[in-house]
Design a protein that fits this description.
The chain starts with a helix and ends in an 8-residue tail after the last strand. It is globular and about 40 Å long. It has three helices and twelve strands, in the order H-E-H-E-E-E-H-E-E-E-E-E-E-E-E. The chain has a single domain, classed as Jelly Rolls. The strands form three sheets. A six-stranded antiparallel sheet has the order 1-10-7-12-5-2, with helices on one face. A four-stranded antiparallel sheet has the order 6-11-8-9, with no helix packed on it. The chain has a two-stranded antiparallel ribbon with strand order 3-4. The protein has helices spanning about 1-5, 30-50, 100-110; strands at about 25, 65-70, 75-80, 80-85, 120-125, 130-135, 145-150, 155-160, 170, 175-180, 190-195, 205-215. With about 220 residues, it is an alpha+beta fold. Helix content is about 15%, strand content about 30%. It binds succinic acid and fe (ii) ion (FE2). Succinic acid (SIN) binds near residues 130, 147, 156 and 189.
């Protein structure tokens, strides 16, 4: 499965500090109509699986971002740690199904990979942020991470494979899609802040990010 990874180009990394190979930004990948219909699907997910406030492992400090999930597995975090689980941490019910439009997007961008198992829904209210981190709670890093932005523009920070590597920041607008594939699969990244007043998609100046991931090892060929 390494080939999906190595075929991904770092086409958009022309800035000062290069992000690892395999980092791609696809500006405007979803047009307004696609954003609106995806938003409706996200609203249906949230109606079934309400947003919850994750907490930092050990300290229990609440995240500023609220979250939910769809797909067979969902990412959760509480005092017990970060993990994937098949049920909502408050409601105890299975996560809603992943919208077909997200599966289609994934299949287009990660044609070699089996379908994603998790779609993390992050809601950033104005003032929310997400510290620099790696996505490394999965059992496999072979498949890419695909992430979709809706609503207000986010100031996204991308670094290297070590926390202290140089980083650069770029704006992710509504409809933009980011792919972390190959070496960039484990690149440090985060959201410094969102820029209110940059989108009319959401009523309240919020930003939604949907992150699609494979969690368990790919089936043997
Ligand atoms: C994440 O790293 O989970 C989300 C990134 C983003 O909001 O763009
Ligand atoms: Fe992440």
């Amino acid at each position: 499965m390494g080939d999906t990874a190595s075929s991904a180009s770092a086409s958009s990394t022309t800035g000062r500090s290069a992000a690892p190979e395999g980092f791609r930004v696809l500006p405007g990948r979803l047009d307004r109509a696609a954003q609106e219909s995806l938003l409706e699907e996200v609203r249906a997910v949230v109606a079934e699986a309400p947003l919850f406030t994750p907490e930092m492992p050990r300290s229990g400090k609440p995240f500023s971002v609220r979250m939910t999930n769809c797909g067979p597995l969902g990412w959760v975090s509480d005092r017990g740690g970060y993990r994937y689980q098949a049920t909502h941490p408050v409601k105890g019910t299975p996560w809603p199904a992943m919208p077909q439009s997200l599966l289609a997007l994934w299949r287009g961008l990660a044609p070699e990979a089996p379908d994603p198992e998790a779609c993390l829904v992050n809601l950033y209210a104005p003032g929310a942020r997400l510290g620099l981190h790696q996505d490394r709670d999965e059992e496999t890093f072979d498949a890419p991470v695909v992430s979709v932005s809706l609503g207000a523009t986010g100031l996204f920070r991308i670094g290297g494979l070590a926390r202290r590597d140089p980083t650069r920041s770029l704006r992710l607008a509504s409809g933009d899609v980011v792919v972390l594939a190959g070496p960039a699969r484990l690149a440090y990244h985060g959201i410094d802040r969102i820029l209110p007043g940059t989108s009319t998609l959401l009523r309240d100046d919020g930003r939604i990010n949907l992150t699609l991931r494979r969690v368990t090892p790919l089936p043997a060929p």
